[in-house]
Amino acid sequence: MWRLYALTSPLLDVRRTARNVPAFFRYLADLSEYQQMSGGRSLSAGDLRPVLGDNLPGHPFDMHYFHQDIWAFERIFKARPDHHVDVASNIPFVSLLSRVVKVNYVDLRPLDVNVPNLECKSGNLLSLPFEANSVRSISCLHVAEHVGLGRYGDKLDPEGTKKSCRELVRVLAPGGRLYFSLPIGRERVCFNAHRVHSTKTILSYFESLKVVELSGIDDNAEFVENISMERLDSCEYGCGLFVFTKQ
Fold first, then answer.
1. Residue ranges of E strands in the chain
2. Which of 194, 196, 207 is nearest to 235 (CA)?
3. Do you find a cis peptide bond into 192, omega within 30 degrees of 0?
4. How many CB atoms lie within 10 A of CB 245?
5. Quick one: which of 32, 52, 134, 222 could link to 23 by a disulfide (CB 3.0–4.6 Å)?
6. pLDDT, mean of residues 188-193
7. How far apart are the C-alpha atoms of 85 and 103, rounded to whole Å?
8. What's residue 5's pLDDT?
9. DSSP-based three-state secondary structure for 83
10. pLDDT at residue 11 above 60?
């Protein structure tokens, strides 16, 4: 398998390079024209930084993260917890959330920042630095599907997602809220990017918790509040948005 990758990867690199060739020639033409303009001749060769591929008709972004961050922010804001724990979710989401609630952000690679209301610490989703039944508000968004695939330097473990869910259950306090998301659809492992699970599988991982809400994002990038399991599971690459509580 490694030999196959070694043989084919140069071809993949050539394809990526070929896609950027027109953009590079456009860059050279723009550079020449800019230098001929008044005030444009002071460019130093050492300061040239060609950025290719951004000349697009639309603004690319990930609809899963766009919808899930709005979804989670709104619900946590309405719940008004005294303190919230987030495990390795989207950094812009965490930074904005810290403006409305005190956030303890846990990640394999903690942020080296110093801002009010945001405490960052090193932690592993398989062994969170909290006692059992101690966290009343916690989020883990688009994270658990990566655990155990080695993508972020973590140890390989085929049960990484399942064990992550168990760890979230362990630390969640009775009466607390867990905001959780990950890809939902045809079950598979897309090594080493992520796993895709069925709704049934995820609910089995959290069988000791009560489902407060199941919403989702379908294959058309549409956010659906209180989505049916059937519609969510029919996706090829949807996103399940779960709220759980511990009774």
1. 83-87, 102-107, 118-122, 135-141, 172-184, 188-190, 194-196, 210-217, 223-224, 238-245
2. 196
3. yes
4. 17
5. 52
6. 97
7. 6
8. 47
9. strand
10. no
Q: Which amino acid is at 194?
A: H
For 241, residues 6+ apart whose C-beta sits below 8 A from its C-beta are 67, 68, 71, 72, 179, 180, 181, 213, 214, 215, 216, 217
Q: In angstroms, rounded to a whole number, what is the distance separating the alpha carbons of residues 18 and 25?
A: 12
Average confidence (pLDDT) over 8-33: 73
**Pick from 172, 160, 106: nearest CA to 133:** 172
* Structure confidence by residue, pLDDT tens digits, 145-162: 999 999 999 999 999 999
Under DSSP, is residue 109 helix (H, G, I), strand (E, B) or coil?
Answer: coil
Question: Exposed/middle/buried for 63, CB within 10 Å: 0-12, 13-18, 19+?
Answer: middle
pTM exceeds 0.85, yes or no: yes
Query: Could you give the CA distance from residue 106 to residue 124 in angstroms, rounded to a whole number?
Result: 8
Question: Whose structure tokens read 């390795």?
Answer: 88
* Residue 189: both structure tokens together: 């492992």
| Residue whose entry in the numeric block shows the structure tokens 């398998």 | 1
* CA distance to 141, 142, 230, per residue, from 88 (Å): 8, 9, 29
pLDDT value at residue 16: 59
Extract the tokens encoding 186: 């045809």
Tokens representing 218 are 């379908």
